[in-house]
Automatic annotation (TrEMBL):
Native source organism of the sequence: Cucurbita argyrosperma subsp. sororia
Protein's name according to its UniProt entry: Aluminum-activated malate transporter 12
Top-level taxon of origin: Eukaryota
GO CC terms: membrane
Family statement: Belongs to the aromatic acid exporter (TC 2.A.85) family.
Originating gene: ALMT12
Keywords linked to the UniProt accession: Ion channel, Ion transport, Membrane, Transmembrane, Transmembrane helix, Transport
Transmembrane segments: 36-55, 67-86, 115-135, 147-165, 177-195
Name of one Pfam family that matches: ALMT
UniProt keyword Amino-acid biosynthesis present: no
Biological process per Gene Ontology, one example term: malate transport
Membrane topology: Multi-pass membrane protein
Subcellular location, record wording: Membrane
InterPro entries for the chain: ALMT
Length: 519
């Protein structure tokens, strides 16, 4: 019966496999249509280099070495032009240097006897292999030329060791170099001239999307924190997923940003925006955004804490918190638009509305001192709850300390009964321990307002860290030669000479100290 069930499940999976493959393929293509174009480019490149095998005159000239062109296309052709240039130039340079050095070693070895020739080749392989491998640990070489050093080692050893047994190894190396050059040429042609995908543009667009994602996450956190309790659970889960996706892309971007910046440094200038685009500044901006994202993660965590501030208390601070979140999101969207359009940000990116919202939040917190400082109204009941919990723990400890003298049979029965009771008490204690902890926490006089104080403090912290993000975006615009901000309402399009001078809002001192004091 069980076997038939497994067979039925397997048959169902086989039947649904084509449909699943189609849905997955459609989804992947819809997410990024460039993937379809890249797949077609790889197929066309493989077809072109296969002609070295299919056309008779070319095959007679190159022979089986034509397979190296196919291998080169498979290995070198990447999704972006920068990655293809990096791997292609590394492979070509590594092959050229290895071939030149191998020819030199072969020329020196041929002038000696066969025994000395074997010893000389072995020593050369050892020294070159050890030196090249050690050079791979150099930071600059490991970052830019690691793949080229690997190809250098592979090609050098193949040519040098083969020359001891094969007489026409120089001709084989010559043909192999030709086929690798043909493969690299096809890859560069496809990457640079036919629907190119630039790593620099990918890094530029991903930075814009990260700023927009953080803006949506902050506004979503505040909206969900003050949401109506009658909202459907499905809508709440969808909102939580959108918040998570907004900052997840920022937190996971470190390795992607560094890789794209490295690949972009290999790309030729393909636009007139700047003579030399500072890709490392994008990486630095990504680091600042990750620190900003950590605060958003903590803000999102306030929505999922075990102890929540009652809605009747939260509603008192809904308006100023919503306004602060809206202004922070608006500033992040403005920064995203400035990077997208390659222009400096607006001089009014931090408007007076944000300052007014912070002041209103500060006044709202100060107007409710009893929520944060506590009262003596529930002091007796809190002390009774703690005393009852402590008495229960003492009874558990004193119950296992009693002993008496029994006969052997009665002692054995008592031991079994005692062991069973201890196991049951241990199980109850594991369940009771978190309950006692929760009772102790909820009995604090200001526990109802404490979660909101943490939420408000983190919200103000996002405003404080917003200054760092603005500074990095301005630095990026200065180095990358962004155009000056143009007032959209001014039809004469007069250039503004002031570059994003931010109003002085002492958020990190005044506002944080007020919320911190409330806690």
């Amino acid at each position: 019966m069980q076997v038939n069930k497994h067979i039925q499940v397997t048959m169902d999976k086989i039947q649904h496999f084509p449909v699943l493959c189609w849905k997955t393929s459609k989804k992947v293509g819809a997410e990024d249509p460039r993937r379809i174009i890249h797949s077609l480019k790889v197929g066309l490149s493989l077809t072109l280099v296969s002609l070295l095998y299919l056309i008779e005159p070319l095959f007679k000239r190159l022979g089986s070495n034509a397979t190296w062109a196919v291998m080169t296309v498979v290995v070198v052709l990447e999704f972006t032009a920068g990655a293809t240039l990096c791997k292609g130039l590394n492979r070509g340079l590594g092959t050229l240097l290895a071939g030149s050095l191998a020819f030199f070693i072969e020329g020196v070895a041929n002038r000696s006897g066969r025994v000395f020739r074997a010893c000389f080749i072995g020593a050369a392989v050892f020294l070159i292999g050890a030196a090249a491998t050690y050079m791979r640990f150099f930071p600059k070489i490991k970052k830019n030329y690691d793949y080229g050093v690997v190809i250098f080692l592979l090609t050098f050893n193949l040519i040098t060791v083969s020359s001891y047994r094969v007489d026409n190894v120089l001709k084989i190396a010559h043909d192999r170099l030709y086929t690798i050059a043909i493969g690299c040429g096809v890859c560069l042609l496809m990457s640079l001239l036919i629907f190119p995908n630039w790593s620099g543009e990918e890094l530029h667009n991903s930075t814009v999307l990260k700023l927009e994602g953080l803006a949506k996450s902050i506004e979503g956190c505040v909206n969900e924190y003050f949401f109506d309790t009658e909202i459907d659970e499905n809508k709440e889960s969808c909102s939580g997923d959108q918040i998570y996706k907004g900052y997840k892309a920022v937190l996971d971007s470190k390795s992607i940003d560094e890789s794209l910046a490295l690949q972009a440094s290999w790309e030729p200038r393909h636009s007139s925006h700047c003579y030399r685009i500072p890709w490392q500044q994008y990486v630095k901006l990504g680091g600042v955004l990750r620190h900003f994202g950590y605060t958003v993660v903590a803000l999102h965590g306030c929505l999922q804490t075990e102890i929540q501030t009652p809605r009747s208390v939260r509603i008192l601070f809904k308006d100023p918190c919503t306004r602060v979140a809206r202004e922070v999101s608006k500033a992040l969207i403005e920064l995203a638009n400035s990077i997208r359009n390659r222009r400096h940000c607006s001089p009014e990116i931090l408007s007076d509305h944000l300052h007014e919202a912070l002041q209103d939040l500060n006044k709202a917190i100060k107007s409710q001192p009893r929520l944060f400082l506590g009262s003596n109204r529930n002091k007796a009941s809190n002390m009774l709850a703690l005393a009852a919990a402590e008495a229960g723990q003492k009874r558990c400890r004193s119950g296992g300390s009693l002993s008496s003298v029994k006969t052997d049979s009665s002692a054995l029965m008592e031991w079994k009964t005692k062991r069973a009771s201890e196991q049951s008490r241990e199980a109850e204690r594991k369940v009771l321990r978190p309950q006692l902890s929760k009772i102790a926490i909820t009995s604090l006089e200001f526990s109802e307002a404490l979660p909101f104080a943490a939420f408000a403090s983190l919200l103000v912290e996002t405003v404080a860290k917003l200054d760092n993000v603005i500074d990095e975006v301005e630095e990026l615009g200065r180095i990358a030669c962004f155009k000056e901000f143009i007032n959209g309402d001014d039809h004469e399009e007069q250039h503004i000479t002031v570059k994003c001078e931010k109003p002085n809002i002492n958020v990190s001192q005044n506002q944080l100290s007020s919320v911190g004091g409330a806690e």
